[in-house]
Amino acid sequence: MKQVAQWTVFEQALTSARHDGDETCELSVVAHFAAPSGRSPQAQAFWDGGPTWRARLCPDEAGLWRWRSECSDPSDAGLHGREGTFECLPYDGPNLLFQHGKPRVSDNGRHFLHADGTPFLWLGDTCWNGVLRATDADWTRYLQTRSAQGFTVIQFFSAHWRGLPRDAHGECAFYGENPVRLNPSFFQRLDPKVAAINQHGLLASAIILLALRDEDDGLRLSVEDVVRISRYLLARWDAYHIAWTLGGDGDFRGERAERWKAVGRQVFGAGHSLATMHPCGWVWVADEFRDEPWFDFIGYQSCHADNPDVLRWFVLGPPAQEWLKPPARPIVNLEPNYEAHPAYDTKRPFTDWDVRRAAYWSLLISPPAGVAYGHHHIWPWSTEPEDQSKALFGTDWGELGPWTNGLEAPGARSITVLRRFFESGEWWRLRPAPAMVVDQPGEEDPYRFVAAAATEQGDWAVIYLPRGGEVSLRAERLKRPARARWFDPRAGDWREAGELQGERHAFRSPDDRDWVLDLRAG
Questions:
Q1: Cα angle, residue 163 at apex, residues 162 and 166 outer, rounded to 5°
Q2: Which of 119, 277, 317, 460 is most buried (most C-beta within 10 Å)?
């Protein structure tokens, strides 16, 4: 009997007796499972070339499982009426995903939890082309490094990107349209890389189709074709620990919102993994998708500009206000400014300070659920210096360096320190507390915006100062006695800042760099 560990992947191959080609428009194969507890989950099987179909499941209970197949062509004895069993064993290892189970939205709608209730903080790396371009050896090196650095999510493109229409074998993910013809060999080469993300303890986060420009697949293809591609990818990868981004980098408002809402309703059913949209910069789509049952969390992009209007949108606009509106959903900055990326307006390359500023702002202006990191040399995944016009269409920003330039960058190390800080307390209890700041310097100068958050119980407050200086706080809500310390977000060191006194208290940072003020009762 086949044995698999709990929270890993069970796979069953089926061989058609009557079909030998891309007939997935007409043919449907479903695997029905019987869990040890009596539950009856099911998984859509996917065509994997020739007569081969496969069904995958992430078993969430230890014990004996049974399965049977059902095909829309009941005369096909290879696909219809097949039965079998497998044994699911408790997982025994260090991988946190397999220990605690698939991430989901918390009951209060503010953050993510593993299946067993363990909080999960989304710390993503936007490695967009990595799955598509990396060699196996490079991919292993990358995942080992990001896992050791404390990242928890890898964000990537799962099909074509406009600058990468074919893979190294010269093949596309699909061909034609109305209907598109899926190419299993393209995805067969991606399967091990997606599985490897999980094997390194990282959640996979896949953008299904890009949808920024009219020529992008997410916009030029019909709704029917977008649904077909999306359903295929879910059948193939939803058994992994994965989060889905239905459309990537687009303006999903107005008429376009209606298109994507229709797609989402047809693609995501009961029990699907986490799902969202990834809008382009400074576009807020929660108003359009708020009532969609498949829309699990709010993704946004504070993006790659550095002018005052953009920063005000970020720290005072929708990202800071949405959490007050029902229904509650986790809010994640899926694409802040990338380290080494030239700012759109000033052309100044963003530094590790910009990375930290965006990350701490993101986690404190709304209830902390997650944030992404990006490096300008990582996301295109070049292996040697490459003209950016090939990847970015007409930019004049010179050459991209090899992806290895971003592997040990200072901004990535800052994410390591950030995770250590937030996991020093129950970060999921923090809520934005802008009223704590008596004189907000960000009102006149958004570059100096001071972000503040505190628990509702008043036993922990966190204040981020991007340029140091003095901050005066209203501290009525905080419990006493409270220890005040400065946390260095670059090195992870702590410095005493005295004890909180009175209902208002002023603190001055050790220098004019960025600092985190930490106030804890006890």
A1: 85
A2: 277
Does residue 489 sit in the same domain as residue 410?
Answer: no
Q: Is the pLDDT confidence value at 39 over 60?
A: yes
Output DSSP code: residue 458: S
Q: Are residues 257 and 138 in the same domain?
A: yes
- Separation between Cα atoms, residue 7 and residue 100, nearest integer Å: 8
3-state secondary structure 341-387: CECCCCCCECCHHHHHHHHHHHHHHCCCCEEEECECCCCCCCCCCEE
Alpha helical stretches, state H, 250-409: 255-267, 286-289, 308-316, 318-321, 352-365, 388-392
The pLDDT tens digits of the residues spanning 209-252 come to: 999 999 999 999 999 999 999 999 999 999 999 999 999 999 99
- β-pairing, 46-47 vs 2-5, is unpaired
As a whole number of angstroms, the distance between CA 367 and CA 33 comes to 37
Q: What is the CB neighbour count within 10 angstroms for residue 479?
A: 17
Q: Which residue has the tokens 């064993």?
A: 89
For residue 342, pLDDT beyond 80: yes
Q: What is the mean pLDDT of the chain?
A: 94
Examine residue 103 and state whether it is found in any structural domain, yes or no.
Answer: no
**Residue 240 forms part of a structural domain:** no
- 78 pLDDT exceeds 90? yes
Give the residue numbers spanning the domain of 75.
2-92
Query: CB atoms < 10 A from the CB of 108, how many?
Result: 11
Label residue 270 by pLDDT band (50, 70, 90): confident
Cα 219 from Cα 371, distance rounded (Å): 27
Count of domains observed in the chain: 3
> Count H helices, E strands: the chain?
14, 31
What is d(CA 401, CA 388) in angstroms, rounded to the nearest whole number?
9
Residues 6+ apart with CB under 8 A from 114: 96, 97, 100, 101, 102, 103, 104, 120
The reported pLDDT for the residue numbered 166 is 84
Q: 339 with 388, same domain?
A: yes
52 and 197 co-located in one domain? no
pTM: 0.97
Is the four-CA dihedral 410, 451, 104, 234 of positive or negative sign?
A: negative
